[in-house]
Structures are given as structure tokens and as C-alpha cells.
Records
---
Amino acid sequence: MNPLIIGASIGIGIGWIIDQLKDKKMKYEIDFLPVGNGDTSGDAIAIRYVEDGSNDYKIMVIDGGTQESGQALVEHIKKYYETDYVDYVVNTHPDQDHASGLSVVMEQLEVGELWIHRPWLYVDEIIHHFQDQRMTKESLERRLKEKFSASYALEELAEEKDVKIFEPYQGKQIGEFGVMSPEKDWYLHTLIPDFNKTPEKKDESVSMLDSAINFVKNVFESFDVETLREDGETSADNESSVILYTEFNDKGIMFTGDAGIQALNEAVDYYNDNSVILSDDIYEKLAFIQVPHHGSRRNISPNILDKLLGEKGQSENKTAFVSAGKDSTKHPRKVAINAFIRRGCKVYATQGNTICHIHNTPDRGWSAITPLEFSDAVEEYD
Ligand SMILES: [Zn+2]
């Protein structure tokens, strides 16, 4: 192979972004707003960052939760970021609890770029996956727009307001962040055909019995005893979640949406494929991570967490944020939180509050919160 071609191909994407950031001093704030009550969970995340000494702040919103949390995002950005301009709006995947609040952001704030997946643009390319369902291109397009109604509404809003639309596939750059997953072909030819098929896993459907009679059996865990399973599975919609990554001040920051084990592996592989530039393993860099899918136990495994965070005792001083409903009985799972703590994370949960991670930006006078505790007893799998 021609080394120049290899050089060119790694010159774009995550390696390039991180190379550009290497010598910059960044100030940033990451805010997770609360979404929903009871067993509804969702994500509503705002980020503001700037290079030290500059006033050129960039603002990114990742998912907007419900209409209510979308409104809260608007107020938050006006109050704490003192602007009504958002540079980048990113929708990780089309689920209502992530996409619908973004329409409020689009309506009430000025937006520079909208980043959403638009699978209906590819019906010619993917129609053959739907042959057995006797679908025409027209009916497939219609079905995708229905299935993605919340994100399709964002596309329509953006077109109305002349906001530029981009698609967040692996290798794309959104501001100072790189898209690690989903890879475009995997998304179009594996995940999209699976969108309708994938059954909702138990973890995602509310188990009335569990919460109503509090019949959850517990099993023992310790720092050395982990019961988290290797074989967790989540829906194709969740696996399609955009995974974003950057390194500010030489420290990795990752947002995961509702991504599952496959997508997280995809992200790690992508990082490693750029290892000519990125000389360390990702776990040595990663300092801040979003716990995927509100702390579900089916989106992570010991193996993928070892890759992302290092094995037990290998790293410390990492921060993890989890967005979970205030009174949720299923999110976050204790077995999932333990797995993050075991690998050197302090884990903080929204559970009705806005939580923020601030680096070198003005003190807001907010009070410190306590991280979640390690649990000696965790939910047994059924
Ligand atoms: Zn979700």
C-alpha cells in the first residue's frame, strides 16, 4: 500500500481533530438537564467551550429530551451561556425522549447546524433489504419518516428556518468533536433494516411487576465480584446513537446517547484505527464519559468497559454522568453504576437536577453533589 494514502486517510476524522487541539488550552462546561419523572428517562445536554484567551465560545446541544426539558434547555442557554445562538444541535437517535425537546430549541433559539440521520434519503440504496416486505421505495420512505417522526420534524423545522443539515456518521467533525459511531454502511445496511425487527428488550419496557411489588431479587457484588453480563443487547435504534468524542487539555470526553455494546466497540475500534496519531489507549485518555442509555445494564459489558475505562484498578479520577428519571426504578441499574465505579469513575446522576462539569469557567455558585455509592447488592438478571 502507498503510505501517502494511509497518511491522507488518517489525516481527517478524529486523529486530525485531536491533533489540532493538542496544544490548546480549553475552558468548557458540560450540563446535563433533568428529563422526565418516574420511569421516563431521556437526554438533554448542553456544552459550551472556548479556547483560553478567546471569546469565541461554541455551544452544542446533544439531544433535547421532552418538550419540557427542551424548554428548560432554552432557558439554561440564555441564562448561563448568555446567548440565544447554538452552533451545533445534535440528535443522537430518533427516540422521542431524545429528539422531541430539540424542536423547542430549534424554534426558540438561532441554530447554526443541525446534525441528524436522514435514512429516507437512501431508499434507492437500501430498498433491497426490504424486498420480502413487498415495500416500494415510496412506502419505505414514508415508513422511515413515520418511524423517525421526531427527527423528521427537526429536518422540516431546519428547512423552514434555513438551518444547514448534516448527517453524523463516523469520521465527521462537529465543532471540536468527532463522530465515532455509527459507521455509515453499518447504519444503513444493518441497523436501519433492523429498526422494525428488534424487539424491545426487557430492560427497556417497564416491568410493572418488578416495581409494583418490589420483587427484585438482589445478588451480592463487591469490588472484585462483578455480575454484569457480557451478552447485553439493545435495540437497533439505540445502537444507532451518535457517539461523540474529543480531547480537551489532553483529556478525553465522550457522549454516548443510548449506544449499546456494538456501537461502543465500533467507537473504540475507530479510535484504535487512528492510533498512528493517537498514541495511547482510549482508557488512558478518557476523563469524562456519559453512561449510555440512562444506566441500562444491557448497553455495556465488562469487556467494553475495560477497553473504555481500563480494568479495575487501572485508572482513577474519571467522571461519569448518567441521565436518569427522578424516581426511576430501572435506571440507572446498580450493576451498571458499580461497573463504572470499579473502573475508576465517580458517577453522578441527574435524577431531577441539572448537573454540570466545569473546567476553568466562572463559578456559578452551585453546590457540590455527591456521587452515587457503590452497592453491595445489585439487581439479579431474570
Ligand atoms: Zn434514551
---
Amino acid sequence: MPGGFAEFVALRRDLHRHPELAFAEHRTAGVVAAQLRHWGYHVTEGVGGTGVVGRLQRGDSTRCIGLRADMDALPITEASGAAWSSVHAGCMHACGHDGHTAMLLAAARHLALHGRIDGTLHLIFQPAEEGGGGALKMMEDGLFERFPCDAVFAMHNMPGVPQGHLVFRSGPMMASSDYATITLQGTGGHGAMPHRANDPIVAAASVVLALQTVVSRNVDPLQPAVITVGAIEGGKANNVIPDAVRLELSVRALDPAVRTLLEQRIRELVAAQAQSFGVQAHIDWRPGYAVLVNDAQQTRRALAVAQRHFPADQVQAEGPMLTGSEDFAFMLQRVPGSYLLIGNGAGDQHGACMVHNPGYDFNDANIPTGARYWVALAEDLLSPQP
Ligand SMILES: [Zn+2]
Ligand SMILES: [Zn+2]
């Protein structure tokens, strides 16, 4: 693949300077659509809100694949010190979606100008990966009916992994992520007369401890699972027993059956604990992203492409499972495919700072690496047939 990456580094830094939150990626989507059109793609905007799909069709094969990048930023104030830091206080590209967009655009240009493909390529630029479910929104807007794909792929940068290393994994890779708000309703009263109240604070303390036994006592020790009580709120004064306490939970699993078990045990424990303390419990359960499961056959093909085009020590065939979550999981529920990681830098390397941190920055050295991989994958899956 020839040079010319400087313009994509500049484009990445321009996107970085102008981050946009979920479903507000208007400027970003505009940049993406204009570039794709310029290279001859058939472009559809406004898919699932601010999503963009670029279609490139060559030859007469009916094969079609989808490559996905995400475009949204996070509500974080940047402290990376980079010259291209966000100009919007309280908003930054702290997950590298600016880089994902730039990598796919760099590949898009090469494929349009020089790509040896026979079939249809759909480049999917989605909004709102960070909790907004932009992938689902695009699917509800007919993504795969309007732009059919035999297989879909996505790539996310990963700090802590050496720059440019490609990490694959067959089967479950990213966790489901559910949210629950538990309200314990008791009876408030004077702090000096607890016998005339039903104290929800003591009940909440017991619930928090009881929840720790779900992962340690109910889940198979060989299965990953997380229950985090990230917020607890109740009471205002030392001599007043409040009438309610609120708990906020994050619940994660890497297996759908474990995900179901976690919900069931949380509901049972909270109900039993509440009853034993004489308070009422209400649980508002909000399902989030699904477990991300990579298709075995598509992952084998994606890995084989990496092994053919990159040095052996740059390709990891069996990466770890992660407890983070990713809404590409929904696309993989509909269409077989694979999600891979690209190392953003490890140790002293630039890019080692973890995502969602104010000091994070995407490693621009990955623009050529990621683009080369996307081109190789597209040319392999849509290779002209003899
Ligand atoms: Zn993120
Ligand atoms: Zn991300």
C-alpha cells in the first residue's frame, strides 16, 4: 500500500479537535460522507441518526462484506496535552473512535483507487457506541436490509498492547453490560429511636455485602462475571434515619447463561434481604449491550489474512476475554463476523494510556497499520475469482 497517510493523520487530529457526543456526530459524519463521495462511493447518510454507509461495488460477484468504525466521543475534559486537543471542554475522543474513523477512511481511499475486489463493500460509520447503542439504531433503520452483508468486521484500539499488534479471539470476547437501580424503601425516623423506623441504610449495607457472594458462590469459577455497586445514596444527617436508599449497579458477563443467572440471583437476594429488614425493594433493570461473540469461521479467515500480511510476532491468534462491552455485539448477533483489537502502545510507548482516561490519545502510527489490514481483509474476502 503506497504512502499518503499524512492527510489521514491530519484528518484524525482534526476529528480529535472537534469531538462530538453520541448521536450528535454531525460534523464528523459530514467529513466522512464528503470523503467517501469524493472517492466514488455511493453514500447514504442519516442511517440510525448520524450513521453513514459508503458502498463500493466492483465486478459481478454477489458477495458483500461490512467493515465498521465508530465516530462518537466521550463526556470527558481532555488532559492529554496534545497540540490537537479537543476545543470543546467536557468532550473528548478518549476511546480512539477518531482513529477508527481515520483508519477506515484511509482504507476506503485505497480500495476505491487501487482495490482488487469483486463484490460489494459496505463501510459502516456508526454513531453512539459509548452506551447509546448506535449499532442497534442503525439496524432498526434497516442497516442489513438496505446494505446486506455476508460478514461484518470491526477493529478497536487497545492501550497496553504493543502498537500495531493485531489481536483476535474466536467466541465470546467482550462482556454484556446491564444496569440496575435498586431502591430500598423503609420508614424514616429519629436517629435516637431506630426501633420506631425501618432503616434502609442498614438494609443497603447488607445488600451490598450479599451481592458479593453472587460472583464468588453462584457463578462457575471458570466463568468471568462482575457486579459493581458504583453508587449508593441515602440520608443527609447523622441523627435522621432516611426513608430510602438508592444503589446503582453495573453487571457484566461473558456468557448469556451467566448473564441470566446474575440477574436472577440479584433479584432473589435483594428481595430476601429487603424482606428480612422489613423494607420494600424495587429494581429497575436496564439491559445494555449483549455479549460480543466472534464467529469461529469468520475469525479464522480474519486471522489468516493478518498472518499472511504481518510479521508473526505482530499477530495474536488467541487474545483474552475483556469485561468491557461493545455494541458491535448486536451486529454480530445478526451477521457472522469478527471484532479484533489493534495495539495502541504498551509500556513507555505513546498510546499506552488507557481509553476513557483524560490523558489518552489514539496512536497515529496505527493509521497505516489498521488501513493496511482493512485493505488486505477486503481484498481477501472479495478477491476476484478466476
Ligand atoms: Zn469507549
Ligand atoms: Zn471505544
